Amino acid sequence: MPLEQQAGQLLMIGTPIATPLNATQTIQKYHLGGIFLAGRSSASAASLRQATGQLQDAAKQGGGIMLQIGIDQEGGQVQTLKGADFPAIPSAVSQGKLDRGKLTADTADWAGRLKNIGVTIDLAPVADVVPASVGKANPPIGGFDRQYGSTPDPVAEDVATVVSAVQGAGVLTTLKHFPGLGRVRVNTDTSTGARDDLTTADDPSLKPFGSGIAAGSAAVMISSATYPKLDPDNVAAFSAPIVTGLLRGKMGFTGLVLSDDLGAATAVSGVPLGQRAVKFVAAGGDVVLSVRLADAGPMSEALIAAAKADPAFAAKVTESATRVVQSKIKAGLTHC
C-alpha cells in the first residue's frame, strides 16, 4: 500500500447513521479503513443493509479494501439501533444478572442482527468494573448502568461470554475502555480531568480485559483518562507505557488497538486535532476513532506528514495498517 492508503486504514471516522452515505466521498478521498455509525436510528434492517453495502462499494472503488463498519450496540441507554428489527437490549447491569446460557443466546441474537446489516465490529463489550462504593458517581459507565457488575471476577466471566457469543455470530468485539473507566468521576467525552489514582499494572480491575483477550476479542479500546500510577504524564490514549507496555507487553494483546473518540471528546481538546492521531499511533495504537466526518482530512494529513518526517513512525504506521488488514481478514472482509 502507498503511505496515503496505509494512513487511511488507521482511521475510523463517524458518520450520522441517519445519513450514512454522506461519508462516501471522504471514504474514497482518504482511503478510510473504517466507518463508525453515530447517533440513534429506528431504520429497518433492509435499509441499513443497503446503506452499508453502498459504503463498502465506495471503499472498494476507492482502493479495493473493504471497511470495518463499527457501531455502539451495548444495550440500555447505549443502543444505536432500535425498532422492529432491533428489539431493546437490557443494560449491562441487567445482562450481568442473566445465567451464562441465557446471556450467550441473547447476545448471539443481538450480534446476528448486526451481522445481517453489514456491521463488522461492535464497539462493545464494556469491561470496566464500577465498584459498588462508586456506582452512579461514575458518570461515563455507572451513570448509565453500562457495567456488568461491581467486582472483577463476575465481570470477567460475563465479558468472556459476550466476546465468544458476538464473535461466534460473525461480528468482531472491542473491549473498552482500557485500562478501565470504572473509578473516574468525570466523563472524558464532556470534561477534562478524568483520572484514576488507583489502577496499577497488577490491578484486579484488569481481569475483565484479560478474560476478553483470552476469549479472542479482536480489539481493545483505550480510554482518554489519566492513570498516574501507570503514566503520570499522559492520558491513556497517548501513553506508550499503557498501550505498548501494559496492554501489548504485560497482557500480551496482539490484536487491534482502537482509541476512544479523539475528535469531539473534551478530554483531548488541548491537543491539536491532527496530533491526536499521531500521538495515539506513536503510543502503539492502531485505529484512531473520531465521531466527526470532518476530522478525516486533518488526521490523515498529520499521519502522512509524521511518517514522511520520521522513518520510525512510518514503520509504526505500516505495522498498524498490517493489523487493520489482519482484522479485516478475521472479519471476512478480505483475504491474504
List keywords for this structure.
single chain; eight-stranded parallel beta sheet; 14% strand; globular; 336 residues; 11 helices; TIM Barrel; two-stranded antiparallel ribbon; alpha/beta
Question: What is the gist of this entry?
Answer:
By secondary structure, the protein is α/β, with parallel strands linked by helices. Helices cover 40% and strands 14% of the residues.
- Overall 3D geometry? globular
CATH topology: TIM Barrel
Helix content, binned percent? 40-55%
CATH class: Alpha Beta
Low-pLDDT sequence parts:
none
The rounded distance between the terminal residues' Cα atoms is: 14 Å
Strand content: 5-15%
Number of strands: 12
Could you give the order of the helices and strands?
A: HEHEHEEEHHEHEHEEEHEHEHH
Instruction: Describe the strand arrangement of the main beta sheet, using strand numbers.
Output: 11-8-7-6-3-2-1-12
Assign the structural class, choosing from mainly alpha, mainly beta, alpha/beta, alpha+beta, or little secondary structure. alpha/beta
- Count of domain modules: 1
Main sheet summary: 8 strands, parallel
Q: Radius of gyration, Cα only, in angstroms?
A: 18 Å
